[in-house]
Design goal:
By secondary structure, the chain is α+β, with helices and mostly antiparallel strands. It folds into two domains: 2-51; 62-265, Glucose Permease (Domain IIA) (Distorted Sandwich). The chain is built from five helices and 14 strands. Strand 6 (173-180) and strand 7 form a beta hairpin. It is globular and about 70 Å long. This is Peptidase M23. The chain crosses the membrane at residues 12-43. Keywords: Membrane, Transmembrane, Transmembrane helix. Pfam families: Peptidase_M23. Residues 122-228 form the M23ase beta-sheet core domain.
């Protein structure tokens, strides 16, 4: 019951902000009410975040295929720090993937670029294992980039407003897969109207789910990937995963690539039938 209450923190914060903004009487009952609601809303958000921290004794990481192909860069991943994002919304071990090379961030001009300017945009996103589709969101727009100085200020304010609503406003277009054994994979910031699956569909490893986009709380087109232990992202806890990948030197690794590491998925080498003869 408490967890259900914590999920309403956005409404409490929004109500508090309205009370403060419309108050024209100075410091008085309405102002105190607004401040109290803001504090309560923040505490509710904090309680929700703490409730989503993984337990001390965790299951071993789940070995999965990488859900993209080609050369990508890892950002905000669990190999560099944990939580990689935040415990909130089960993002403890989340990772962001962006295709490289891509336009360099600029500080002043242009303020924003169209998502089509980035090589990530429109790239296929595939299932990392066999599973069943339990959630699909496909109608949110792909917005301009937020990588300039002005764009960064804008995205901070935008992220706060998005956080007051349902998680879909932060995730943008997304797909959630049930991989079995209590593991659920989330793919966020997908391209509008690019979904190739529907709720209830069974998918195979490597099957295309959708395309990389720039929807939701995203500064540039990229794929946000995470594992969690429940289909409810507002109460689930993050799970660890492991990938096989090659860095730019051709060295093969197993795990999650560190931040700013450019990599390609490691493709298994088929056995040489002649060598066995």
């Amino acid at each position: 019951m408490l967890q259900t209450l914590w999920k309403r923190h956005g409404l409490v914060v929004a109500a508090g902000a309205v009370c403060v903004l419309v108050n024209a009487q100075g410091v008085g009952p309405l102002w105190f009410t607004g401040v109290a609601l803001l504090v309560i809303g923040v505490l509710m958000r904090r309680a929700m975040t703490l409730g989503q921290r993984p337990p001390r004794e965790e299951a071993p990481p789940l070995s999965l295929s990488i859900p993209v192909t080609g050369r990508w860069m890892a950002r905000n991943g669990p190999a560099t720090k944990v939580p990689s994002h935040t415990h909130n919304l089960a993002q403890t071990y989340a990772i962001d993937l962006a295709r490289r090379p891509a336009p360099e961030p600029v500080w002043l001009w242009p303020v924003a670029l169209r998502p089509e300017s980035y090589p990530s945009f429109g790239e296929p996103v595939s299932a990392p294992a066999e599973g069943r589709v339990v959630a699909v969101s496909d109608s949110q727009r792909d917005h301009l980039s937020r990588t300039s100085l002005g764009g960064l200020f804008y995205v901070l304010a935008e992220a706060f407003i998005r956080s007051l609503g349902a998680p879909r406003h932060l995730l943008g277009n997304h797909v959630i897969l049930d991989l079995g054994d209590g593991a659920y994979a989330v793919f966020a910031h997908l391209r509008r109207h690019s979904s190739k699956v529907a709720v209830g569909d069974r998918v195979t490893e490597g099957q295309t789910l959708a395309e990389c986009g720039n929807s939701g709380n995203s500064s540039e087109p990229h794929v946000h990937f995470q594992l969690m232990d429940s289909p409810d992202i507002t109460s689930a806890r993050g799970l660890r995963f492991t990938w096989r990948y090659r860095d730019d030197d051709g060295k093969e690794h197993e795990g999650a690539p560190a931040d700013n590491t450019c990599f390609t998925p490691a493709v298994p080498v088929p056995p040489d039938d002649h060598a066995a003869l």
